[in-house]
Amino acid sequence: MPSDLERAMEMLITVFHRYASKEGGSASLNRRELKMLMEAELGTFLKSQKDPATVDRIMRDLDSNGDGEVNFEEFVSLVVGLSIACEQIYRLHMQSKGVKKQ
């Protein structure tokens, strides 16, 4: 039976390829696919962004090799960055509740 972390990794891969296969190949996300993924899977994050060019900016930031698409490695950097930010908020929340660090 897979662990929670193994299931999380499997889900990350599955979600990426679900959207990457919408148009053309399944090895990368084009701008439209990235936008669909973010609207469906990161809707709360996207709604909190006031800049209508958020997806374009994220696409430019993620596309480290400049090919106009986001491959899985580039996509994971988005997930890592958001996870780090969420973990920092989690720690602040726990501190405000008086929960001590372990």
Automatic annotation (TrEMBL):
**Keyword list, A-Z:** Calcium, Metal-binding
Q: CDD domains attached here?
A: S-100A10_like (cd05031)
Pfam name, any one: S_100
Q: Which InterPro entries match?
A: EF-hand-dom_pair, EF_Hand_1_Ca_BS, EF_hand_dom, S100/CaBP7/8-like_CS, S100_Ca-bd_sub
**Where does the EF-hand domain lie?**
50-85
Top-level taxon of origin: Eukaryota
Coiled-coil region list: none
Recorded protein name is Protein S100
Source species: Labeo rohita (Indian major carp)
